[in-house]
Specification:
Helices cover 0% and strands 79% of the residues. It is flat. By secondary structure, the protein is mainly beta. The two termini are 18 Å apart. It has one domain. A 3-stranded antiparallel β-sheet has the order 1-2-3, with no helix packed on it.
Length: 56
């Protein structure tokens, strides 16, 4: 379903009643070509929310 964001009015894909659960591992995080470390999320949850996905 099409939708628009409230910040900036971008057109995108609406996703309702989101339920997302994951373990996320980012062993390399680079900024300007320099590795600044790593990020790990365990039991990461997004639930009971609505999203608008868009790109530029």
């Amino acid at each position: 379903m099409a939708a628009a964001t409230t910040a900036g009015g971008q057109d995108g894909l609406a996703i309702y009643d989101v339920e997302f659960r994951a373990d996320l591992d980012m062993p390399i995080v680079k900024v300007g070509g320099t590795n600044i470390g790593e990020v790990y999320f365990t039991d990461f949850v997004i639930s009971n929310t609505d999203l608008v996905v868009y790109g530029h």
